[in-house]
Design goal:
about 270 residues, 7 strands, single chain, two-stranded antiparallel sheet
Length: about 270
């Protein structure tokens, strides 16, 4: 969660989520909540995103830290890994800012050099991998380029077989139970928006079920697949988290949904 000062005279919009809400890999001013703050300057927009958090931790954060602030609107930004991770422990960032399962232990550094192309022919490549900053930077660049190609292949695969689904009904039911528990903490009349963040998998089977679950708990639903399809532009070196331009565009769409559904009270 990003620590920020709040203006006590302004109503509060709370934005729950994980690393996408938090703004992993971008500047604080480039996050989705930061863009919303610019668009709704008469309100406080509080970024409550925490990398690795699932709905259980998000609910606890709301209960212990946000509920007493009496937000006037709640936004919940959902990613499909939240369904699979509902019962996972809190993830932790290692010294390289990589999310690891709780209890993960650093192993002795292994050699993982480039094995293709000219650089793969170097006889001392293992030494370079552990001692040369230039070599490591080159490896990151090549890996990122390969990852982009892999993502394009994934996007094509999921579009050609759009009804393939990796989310089980049992996982959705578990998520529904946790969302219901969160809803019980909320004031009955609190306006709320459930935002589905798109990934490479289309989830044509699971998404309608997820929307029904959210609507049953009193959320309006904004499905960003309808804006970005299954290929939102991500960080070039990460390939999962949105880049600054995608965050800015998403915030504009979220702001439009907030206005459309009338989720904010009038301010003086």
């Amino acid at each position: 969660m990003i620590v920020q000062e709040l203006d006590a005279e302004k109503p509060l919009i709370a934005v729950l989520g994980d690393s996408i809400t938090f703004g992993y890999g971008v500047e604080d001013s480039e996050t989705i909540p930061a863009h919303l703050q610019y668009l709704f300057q008469q309100y406080n927009v509080l970024n409550i995103g925490v990398p690795g958090y699932n709905l259980i931790q998000q609910r606890t954060t709301y209960q212990e830290k946000i509920q007493k602030l009496h937000p006037v609107t709640l936004l919940l930004l959902f990613h499909f890994n939240d369904v699979e991770e509902t019962n996972m422990a809190i993830a932790e960032l290692d010294d390289k800012d990589i999310l690891r399962p709780q209890g993960w232990k650093q192993q002795e550094q292994a050699c993982s050099p480039i094995v293709t192309g000219f650089l793969g022919l170097l006889p001392w490549k293992c030494w370079l991998d552990q001692h040369s900053a230039f070599y490591v930077a080159m490896k990151k660049y090549l890996n990122a380029r390969q990852a982009q190609e892999d993502l394009r292949e994934q996007e094509h695969t999921y579009r050609t077989d759009p009804f393939a689904e990796n989310i089980r009904d049992k996982s959705l039911q578990r998520y529904a139970a946790e969302l219901h528990t969160l809803r019980q903490l909320l004031p009955r009349t609190l306006p709320r928006l459930f935002i589905i963040w798109p990934e490479r998998h289309l989830h044509l089977v699971a998404r309608p079920k997820l929307k029904e679950i959210a609507q049953r708990e009193g959320f309006h639903v904004l499905d960003l697949y309808e804006v970005f399809g299954n290929h939102p532009q991500a960080l070039s070196w990460d390939n999962v988290h949105p880049n600054p331009a995608t965050n800015a565009e998403a915030a504009q769409v979220i702001a439009a949904a907030i206005e459309h559904y009338g989720l904010l009270p009038r301010t003086k």
